[in-house]
Amino acid sequence: MTNITKNTQQTSIENIHIYNIDVENREIYLHAPLDNVEESNLDYRCAVVFEKNLRHLNLLSLEPILVHMHLPGGDWQDCLGMYDAIEASKAKVIILSYARAESCSSVLLQAGDLRILMPNTNMLIHYGSFSLDGEHSKAAASSIQWNERECDKMIEIFTDRCINSSIYKEKNWKRMMAKKHIMSQLASKCDWILTADQAVNYGFADGVLGSKKFPNIDYIKNLMKKI
């Protein structure tokens, strides 16, 4: 092996582990910053690195991009920033979710052009936490209104995905019926937890890796090239 080849491989490995990007294979690794052992959630650092990597791959070509997402929850607004970045991507974005898609990462998953879950990935949907400690009364009222709008936004995102699902067709729902069902699940359970197969049934994911429809990673990457 030549020194040039060794150096290229070393650079590729460093990019994956330091910058969370595999440029050659057009893959991004999305997870919380590893230098904070006490916190594993999405934050602004995670978001800005992802947004840079996604933009960089878009500038290189419009071939599909695979995002390996191993992320529980985190900051809602940073999540929406990443959501918007995926929506704005001219290159198709595949999101492969590992272990859990919880809270805002379950919402982020919905931005993908193809949403695949690992077999043991669970999805948790809820409204998240919100506090008003120390806020002026008028500021508190404004914050509550903002929070209500953001909750509605989340419900609309899931409803948009649900209307193309198998359960939507089986139940012969109208859009409002699907929306009310989602809201009722959150009202009664607070944390609505779904298995990978259940998430697919509701339209919150497109499939499970290792199934007949999506047998392996190479298959889903090639599939997106044809769409």
Model description:
This protein is an alpha/beta fold. Helices cover 51% and strands 16% of the residues. It is built from nine helices and eight strands. It has helices at residues 3-18, 44-60, 76-88, 104-109, 137-162, 166-171, 175-189, 196-201, 217-226, and strands at residues 21-22, 27-30, 65-71, 93-102, 114-117, 122-125, 192-194, 207-208. Strands 1, 2, 3, 4, 5, 6, 7 and 8 form an eight-stranded mixed β-sheet that branches. β2 (27-30), α2 and β3 (65-71) form a beta-alpha-beta unit. The protein is globular.
Provide the helix percentage. Answer: 40-55%
The major beta sheet can be summarized as: 8 strands, mixed
Backbone shape: globular
What is the averaged pLDDT score? 91
Helices and strands, in order, run as: HEEHEHEHEEHHHEHEH
The whole-angstrom Rg is 19 Å
The computed structural class is alpha/beta
- Uncertain regions: pLDDT < 50 for 5+ in a row? none
* First and last CA, distance: 38 Å
Number of DSSP E strands: 8
β-strand percent reads 15-25%
Helix count from the secondary structure assignment: 9
